[in-house]
Design a protein that fits this description.
single chain, 549 residues, TIM Barrel, Jelly Rolls, five-stranded parallel sheet, five-stranded antiparallel sheet, 13 helices
Length: 549
């Protein structure tokens, strides 16, 4: 027993060191799936090893396939399902396994408890006789009745006289009794899709959804006050799928009820853009007709549909995608996150299209989120799902999806830097076209304005660039010039060090400190290219180059 404990401590320390060697994104989350420790611990460890981030939240699903309430002593129901999940997650957090405990010995891995607003027993009419032709078929009327029952308090307290049952408080009890003091409560997620009983597809289902959502949120907030907990409600439409034409914002329960706006979003493309004549696919980059395989292979097309999931040739900005979700959160003054996101598909037909090894999507998300933060968005959490990809069903944790794995690792580093407002150039390698003896290029990233780089006297055309070590968005560059400044210069980025994109150019440089903001670049390398000297001095001299994502 002592040997096992010693090995456990060493194992935990090694993983902690591995994660913290990289800057940590406070909003990092990971869906571990079944929280049974024997199954969840290896997945958690794999995430830490591959992504180099220590997740702080994980999704827990109260099984909506089960009845919300059943009279049988041993029948499945939501209260019992919540109790089992809370027990297993608390055990996983214990010193015996992950040792995710706070100073008072309570679990500090936050559950994102996902609860539906219907169960399949009612919404899919499983309460009918098996011989009934409607058995197993979705009924909007039945779903609306159940959501209205929730809104009217049917599942708030035990009251045999009125047939009311205590469900919602019992779910909260389950987690509180196991030491959890903070929950994210994700209520009726992806209501703008067509796969859950609480789908919003008409005015009656919209009104019932909003009423039920508000009621559960109010119960949660009151419960948290009564028991000294933090329960933050999460509104979570899908930002990756077309809907019935009902605006997503119309099913928003309201600022008094919603604490966090955190949609779901995934990389697979379900709606590749057809050409005007429907004979091929419209390429958003070349504006030409291409085959489906060509269309899916080009990041510009996938990015367009990630932004506008219902776009077509005639309506290029149709669909409530990630930019719309971020803008809505900012307009409502609500923290933002992703309650689910991932890079997985099993082929064009079965699970949506895209590369088997999708390395672009995590970096796309990082750029959109970084931009949102610069616009005033509060970023709360991003929960990554390791989705299977390709015909072999492997995930990015398997070692066989290197681009995805790298993408998620870089994503965590980027978001940590955005949260910290970190100068990602500090301490990084720098290279220059020319260097005067005693004033090397590395001085521009040493964090010390008493040192400087200087080019050799002569040619006006000089450059110096910083290797950031990985890809980052570039939103801000701060230059501290010495006396020998440039009057005309450009700021450029590159992903390969060979092909450069100009983000900014000026011909009015006056030395001192240039703090250039609102840039929109992306790459591993950031270059300052000096075109013309601003003084009679024959060289250029920079004290610091700072880069912020």
């Amino acid at each position: 027993m002592k040997l096992r404990s010693s090995l456990l401590v060493l194992f935990v320390l090694l993983f902690a060191f591995s994660a913290h060697a990289q800057d940590q994104f406070r909003g990092s989350g990971f869906f571990i799936g079944d929280p049974t420790p024997s199954k969840a611990e290896p997945r958690y460890d794999a995430f830490v090893r591959v992504v180099k981030q220590r997740p702080n939240s994980t999704n827990i699903f109260i099984d909506y396939h089960e009845p919300i309430w059943s009279s049988g002593a041993y029948d499945a129901q939501w209260r019992k399902n919540a109790t089992w999940h809370a027990e297993q997650l608390a055990l996983l957090c214990s010193a015996e396994y992950l040792n995710r405990l706070d100073a008072e010995g309570r679990p500090n891995l936050t559950p994102m408890v996902s609860i539906g607003l219907t169960d399949d027993y009612h919404a899919y009419q499983l309460n009918l006789s098996a011989s009934d032709p409607n058995y197993g078929k979705y009924s909007e009327a039945a779903a609306v009745r159940m959501m209205n029952s929730i809104a009217n308090g049917k599942y708030d307290v035990n009251d045999p006289a009125t047939g009311r049952k205590r469900v919602w408080p019992a779910i909260f009890d389950a987690f509180r009794n196991k030491g959890f003091r903070k929950l994210y409560l994700r209520i009726g997620w992806e209501q703008n899709g067509n796969w859950y009983g609480w789908q919003v597809r008409s005015e009656s289902s919209r009104a019932a959804y909003v009423a039920a959502w508000r009621h559960v949120a109010t119960l949660a907030h009151n419960y948290a006050i009564a028991y000294g907990m933090t329960i933050e409600t999460v509104w979570s439409p899908t930002a990756s799928y077309t809907n019935y034409g009902i605006p997503e914002e119309s099913s928003y329960p309201g600022d008094s009820y919603v604490d966090i706006i955190a949609p779901t979003a995934y990389s697979p493309i379900w709606n590749a853009t057809r050409s005007a004549d429907k004979t091929a696919y419209y390429d958003w980059g070349s504006e030409q007709k291409v085959s489906l395989s060509e269309w899916l292979s080009r990041p510009v097309n996938r990015r367009h549909l990630w932004d506008y999931p219902a776009a077509d040739y005639w309506n290029p900005q149709r669909g409530w995608g990630i930019p719309a979700a971020i803008s809505f959160a900012i307009s409502q003054g609500k923290p933002f996150g992703f309650s689910e996101t991932g890079t997985g598909n099993a082929g064009v037909t079965a699970r949506g299209g895209g590369p088997v090894d999708e390395g672009d999507y995590p970096l796309y998300l990082a750029r959109r989120l970084a931009s949102g933060v610069h616009r005033g968005m509060q970023l709360r959490m991003v929960e990554v799902w390791a989705q299977p990809t390709g015909s072999d069903g492997s995930t990015f944790l398997s070692g066989s999806r290197p681009q995805e794995a790298t993408g998620w690792k870089e994503f965590g580093t980027i978001m940590a830097a955005v949260q910290q407002q970190k100068n990602v150039a500090k301490g990084k390698l720098a290279y220059a076209r020319s260097t005067q003896s005693g004033f090397p290029a590395r001085y521009v990233t040493d964090g010390n304005t008493a040192t400087r780089w200087s080019s050799v006297p002569g040619d006006d055309k000089q450059w110096i660039y910083v290797d950031l070590g990985q890809r980052y968005p570039t939103a801000r560059v701060r230059l501290a010039w010495d006396a020998a400044h440039a009057s005309e210069y450009s700021i450029q980025t590159s992903s390969n060090g060979a092909t450069w994109t100009t983000l900014y150019k000026t011909s009015a440089g006056d030395g001192g400190v240039d703090d250039i903001r609102s840039l929109s670049g992306f790459g591993r390398y950031v270059r300052v290219f000096a075109h013309k000297r601003g003084t009679q001095l024959k060289n250029y001299s920079l004290r610091e180059i700072e880069v912020y994502p």
